[in-house]
Specification:
Nuclear Transport Factor 2, Chain: A; protease; Glucose Permease (Domain IIA); alpha+beta; metalloendopeptidase activity; single chain; 17% helix; 3 domains; disordered N terminus
Length: 398
């Protein structure tokens, strides 16, 4: 059976009768749980949670505050379908099934568009981009790309210009997920500064020097309860012991993300670590995530994960006094303080790699110069409005 949610150009088949329906868009509230969500909408909790297997129940814990979801209702305002995005690739689909409702996890259908932004700066790049686009995500990717190489606070002058070339995913006609910065230029005084996303998924400047390097993401949204130190009084062993990582105190079940892209080399129980995930990154770096309640479905040894991808959930397994994440960074086996590591490696392209990059750079430069000279106006995506659609649902065999 194949089911499709119809918005704009997607067609849904339901029986053999065409019905008028409307779609409403909502934002997942901070602190809201999946069970509270079901109860709020008077949906059957047993069918849509307690009768699910453990893996599907675990999926429902991945809803994050701020995510937009959609509800399809008929002319009587009865719920027909709900789409709850969990990440960039997966969403929960709740749909009317006879006299009740059914639950399934399905892939997210999205399209990617190449976008451009030109603007002048009056105070800061962040404010200029935010004012023009209304998107904190677009502003965020620009600032993050330059923040380790440029000083925006002291060197920006009123009237300086910037150009962004970026790609943005769209889901159901609206921007979805974080945009990817492909290339950018910012003028500071009389000097222009550039950054380019190379084919190896790393950022380089106009001289083919890497500007990002290995940057760690915050593995969990939580406060730090214990810092990296060579000398710490252990709360369980009651003796002084090195604490070669950072602890984040968080509620049991809080999602944990990969701090960097890499390959999972361990995902199992290991002594005092409890449930442990190890990820091997480029240039001899390794991150560790300990005391996990459980691993996310599909996380296993040999799996390649991307920076920011959910890999597990906060727990208190192993030698632990309460729910928290113990996070470590190591280079060739030696523990490093993760909070002090912002840029731990740089790369300078040479030979064929540099030649290919310079061709890519020239192509980006031509586009940047075109938009800079034309002062290309920014086109905001249309606002989502409650709209009526014609939909059908049927079984498609084969």
């Amino acid at each position: 059976m194949i089911r499709f949610f119809i918005l704009l150009f997607i067609t849904l088949f339901f029986s053999n009768t065409l019905l008028a329906s409307h779609v409403e868009r909502f934002r997942w509230q901070n602190g809201e749980t999946y069970l509270v969500f079901l109860e709020k909408l008077n949906l059957p909790v047993r069918q849509l949670y307690y009768n699910l297997d453990k893996d599907d129940q675990r999926l429902t814990e991945e809803m994050r505050a701020g995510v937009h979801y959609q509800i399809l209702k008929d002319t009587n305002n009865d719920i027909l379908q709900i789409l709850l995005p969990l990440n960039d690739e997966l969403q929960v689909h709740i749909y009317k099934n006879g006299d009740g409702y059914a639950f399934e996890a399905i892939p997210i259908i999205s399209t990617t568009r190449n976008e451009v932004l030109y603007t002048q700066i009056n105070s800061s790049p962040n404010y200029a981009i935010l004012k023009k686009t209304g998107s904190r995500k677009v502003a965020g990717v620009f600032v993050a790309a330059f923040k380790h190489s440029l000083n925006f606070k002291n060197d920006i002058r009123k009237g300086d210009e910037l150009v962004m070339l970026y790609s943005q995913k769209y889901r159901l006609g609206q921007p979805f997920s974080m945009p990817t910065l492909d290339a950018a230029m910012i003028e500071m005084g009389s000097k222009k500064h550039y950054i380019y996303l190379n084919d190896d998924d790393r950022y380089y400047d106009e001289k083919a020097h890497e500007v990002e390097g290995f940057l760690l993401a915050r593995p969990v949204r939580a406060r730090i309860s214990s810092y990296f130190t060579k000398r710490r009084f252990h709360p369980v062993l009651h003796k002084w012991k090195a604490h070669l990582g950072v602890d984040y105190a968080a509620r049991r079940g809080t999602p944990i993300v990969a701090a960097g892209s890499g390959k999972v080399i361990y995902a199992a129980r290991m002594g005092s670590y409890g449930n442990l995930i190890k990820i091997r990154h480029n240039d001899g770096y390794e991150t560790r995530y300990a005391h996990l309640k459980s691993f996310r479905r599909g996380i296993y040894r040999g799996k390649y994960v991307k920076k920011g991808q959910t890999i597990g959930y906060v727990g208190s397994t192993g030698r632990s006094t309460g729910p928290h994440l113990h996070f470590e960074l190591r280079k060739r086996g030696v523990a490093i303080n993760p909070l002090r590591v912002v840029q731990v490696t740089t790369k300078k392209l040479k030979g064929k790699e540099k030649k290919a990059f310079l061709q890519l750079k020239n192509n980006f430069d031509e586009r940047i110069d075109l938009h800079l000279n034309n002062k290309t106006p920014y086109k905001k995506p249309p606002r989502f409005e409650d709209m009526c659609y014609i939909y059908m649902m049927d079984d498609i065999n084969g």
